[in-house]
Amino acid sequence: MGFGVTKSTHSFIHAGLPDSGTPLTNKLVLEGNAMFDQLTSELDVPFTRIGKLFVVMKKNEVEILKKKKEDADAAGVPGVRIVNSKELRAMEPNLTKEAVAALFTPTTGLVSPWELVIALSENAMENKVEFMLNAKVTGISVPRDHTFVINTTRGSVTSKFLINAAGLFADDIAKMVGEDDFSMVPVKQERSILDERVTDLVNHLVRSPITGDFVSPTKKELKAKKSNVIIGYTSEKIEDKNDVSTSREGFQRVFNFAKRMFPAFSTKDIITSFAGLVPLNTRTNDYIIEASKKVPGFINAILGGSGVGASPAMAKLIAEILADCGLKLVPKQDFNPYRKGIPDFRELPDDQKEALITENPQYAHVVCRCETVTEGEIVEAIRRGARTLDGIKFRTKAGMGRCQGGFCTPRVVQILARELGVPVTKITKREDNSQLLLFKNKGGERQNEIARS
Amino acid sequence: MIQEHEFICTICPLACRIKLIAEGEKIINITGHGCLRGEDYAIQEFKCPKRVLTTTIRTTDGNQPLISVRSSKLIPKKLLRECVSFLAGEKVSPPIKVNDVVIKNILNTEADIIATQNLPYDQ
Amino acid sequence: MKSREVDLVVIGAGPAGLAAAIKAKERGVEDIIVIERAEQLGGLLHQCIHTGFGLQYYKEDLTGPEYAHRFIKKLKNLKIKYLLKTMVIDISSDKKIIAINPEEGLLRLHSKALILAMGCRERSRGSIAIPGTRPAGIFPAGTAQRFINVEGFIPGKEIVILGSGDIGMIMARRLTLEGATVKAMVEILPYVGGLIRNEVQCVHDFNIPLFLEHTVTEIHGLDRVEAVTIAKVDKDRNPIPKTEKKIKCDTLLLSVGLIPENELSLKAGVELDSVTNGPIVHGTMETSVPGIFACGNVVQVHDLVDDVTIEGELAGASAADYILGKVTPLEKKIHIKAGEGIRYVVPQIISAQRDVNLHMRVLNPDRNVTVRIGKDLLERRFPIVKPSEMVKITLPLARLRMLKEETKELMVTVGVDEDDTRT
Questions:
Q1: Closest CA relative to residue C80, chosen from C118, C29, C45
Q2: Residue A359 lies in domain
């Protein structure tokens, strides 16, 4: 879950500065932003209001900032203000001296999107939502009594209402019920992560209002001792919905911007690079959150850029749409809004570390040395559903540090094999049959196999 | 038929490029070596290049699935892969100490295969 | 909360830490604890099953495990205490350490002296920014070595290796012997990065196709590596257009550099050298924090384990002197600077009170050169120098005594002999 588009972004919960032509997006992003404190607190997901600085380098570009502020004030985005070079210097001491002014949006927040999705899914499961994973939808039929029959690779499901939240592939799903007035187009964004040792250089999300390129810390909580810096944004429309490859040009563009903004960076600080896709629909620039006019009970829930931040507000809207469509909604009496995440061993104070270890000595065996992730956390992640190397990585951050899994991979693989009761050779990087990590050696079978081939 | 062979000597950092001219198996001339050890090296490489074999053998111990081993003597280079193949079918059991012979006279090379680790490791 | 006062803590039980602990014990330090995060002593020697270790120290050609075994035996005979599967998670400049392991939980230690011997880590794909997809099947060479030699798994069937350092070449041979096909070894420089002996016995012996002045410009394959694209590079190491070649493979091994692991050193307030990425050390192997010493690959990446052992022994002896109160106060501090042609020199600071072994690396390979220390303090000629082979020069005390009182700095340079007309 969340292993498609969601994991390859790094979510800024945007303040809600409006764009023209996208009224629904503007509304939902602004509303959603305000909901994030409570949501993330209930779900035990780290969230910070990092604040964003749109930085300009030329005096005549300040006009752009003024216009943005006007629009923001009109839309009701709180606290937006222009910052002059003196204040900018105080807010970002390591920012280039070339910067002349910035627009500051204090409510811009930062969350890890896969942490959010994992937390949401765990909480949903706790509240009795059923998940069918690895079930690819192959067809949908709409019989006369308005009940959808959804055929998947793991069997069929029937339902009176169907919410299309298939993101990049939402057009494929919509076509299955006869809605074909839009396509989904992937827009590629490239990113790089910088070593945590440069985190102190950057205090806010710093972005160019003209190109969209950005530099940001990944965490800036008061308690978090470790954070990386993420840099990115090379937006280009592409054809292939499965193309998440990085490019030399993309990498260079992203790094050149970052270095221009923060001259202290060096390429030695890069620890990894990746690309993600943002789905855009071809019908409009705006989100499509609406009940289908053609097919009763079919609801499109198609977000796009800034979608993570808009999602809680979108969910409220969907609930209203469902009610309008005739679904009787009665608030659940025993709804549990709370979810506790896997303990972040590294961040616990010493006495809590000790208590955890006393309860379970696996928390005293450090497996990922770069991020100080213990066997206890890894086993807990497996208990909660992780089955692959990436599953462990995104739930515990093991493998995300500067050695990028060089040290911990052999150990994580063994733990997965042991806990899942499968041979090491069956452990994969991602959820897919074709991604074998390793082949067994010795004991005769490997030698024969290679001799034969 | 006269053939020219070239060897890079590995005896010292000078890494002399040694040319050995031979007719069939008969050595006619050796040039390029900086010392007599290099000359011996080239002759050996020409006649029968030999190497130490280092590899691993499976064990019956689940906690330590392999131990590392080496040949007690140099083995003809051309037999290295065959030796590894042969060892792939072998298994050893604890207790084993460093320098213990685990296979005697592998493939008639007169070299033994000896353990370079203890099994179990911590003894 | 268990808290203990000890004489000496050594972090890391690889060749550096083992040598340091043994020497310190032999010099009279009683209460020593060696802390090791792996499941066994010996550090990475455990998985280096090939020979080439001990040629200088023991005058024998040993495998990594055999070399480690000798020091492990000594450690145990001396009854030096060690903790396995134990990770140091915090450290301070006043030598307070927090470590954890499953048996004892959280351990607090406070030692009189500390020796840092954590070794290094390998550069990853991400840190050299190879474009392309992110499939399974990309491994640092050392990780693959662990899988093959310790756990018994082969990472793939058709391998491309990026980098021709020693670990890359060793793995080329290892994989070939175990039945895989190494389709290419790709090296960005115009010469092989490791020892000639390995080039002959790993690359030539097994006919591994070697592509010098090439690099990997793209990785292909969505779920698993399917191919890599390699291209020739120019003098500035940029890929030359139209020289691309796609090589089908299922595994990419990376042997693209080692970086000293100094996270703990930074926590302890130790000053690092920006070229070596290791602590700045005195001739005694003491760091910028009094009582904290460092040795082995954590200080500088070594070629030979024998040098690591000697450095470890020096650190152990110095730490012992420090603990037992036998330290002579430093009379002066002379900074050693890397000058023309030299990438770095270790130690970076010396006093003129004892012989010093200088370790350095040159920037470029060359023949018939002279290394000069100071304007005319000492010079040594070398028929061959290479960046991949550490240059070692002993600076005797007798020479150091010839320095003027005010000397604060010694520049080390290397250059081709001016009067050398030999070809």
A1: C29
A2: 345-452
Interface contact flag, C51 B77, Cβ < 8 Å:
no
ipTM: 0.92
pTM: 0.90
Check whether A224 has a pLDDT greater than 60.
Answer: no
Test C69 with B70 for CB contact under 8 angstroms: no
Residue A423 domain flag: yes
- Domain annotation covers residue A391: yes
- Distance from C-alpha of C90 to C-alpha of C106, rounded to nearest angstrom: 11
β-pair type (C334-338, C258-260): unpaired
Tens-digit pLDDT profile for residues A236-245: 777 888 888 8
Q: How confident is the model at residue C339 (pLDDT cuts 50, 70, 90)?
A: very high
Residues in chain B, pLDDT under 70: 123
* Domain assignment present for A384: yes
- The answer to whether residue A369 sits within a structural domain is yes
Q: Is C370 on the interface with B (CB under 8 A)?
A: no
Interface contact B57-A446, CB threshold 8 A: no
Q: Is C107 helix (H, G, I), strand (E, B) or coil?
A: strand
Closest of C21, C8, C7, C6 to residue C296, by C-alpha: C21
Check if the beta carbon of residue A52 is closer than 8 Å to that of residue A12. yes
Is B55 in Cβ contact with C49 (below 8 Å)? yes
CA distance B20 to chain C (A): 16
* Contact list, B68 vs chain C (CB under 8 Å): 49, 63, 65, 149
Chain B residues with CB-CB distance to C148 below 8 A: 56
B51 Rama sector, left if φ>0, alpha if ψ -120 to 50, beta otherwise: beta
pLDDT over 70 percentage in chain A = 92
Is residue C401 predicted with pLDDT exceeding 60?
yes
- Which residues of A have a catalytic role annotated? 14
Domain count, chain A: 1
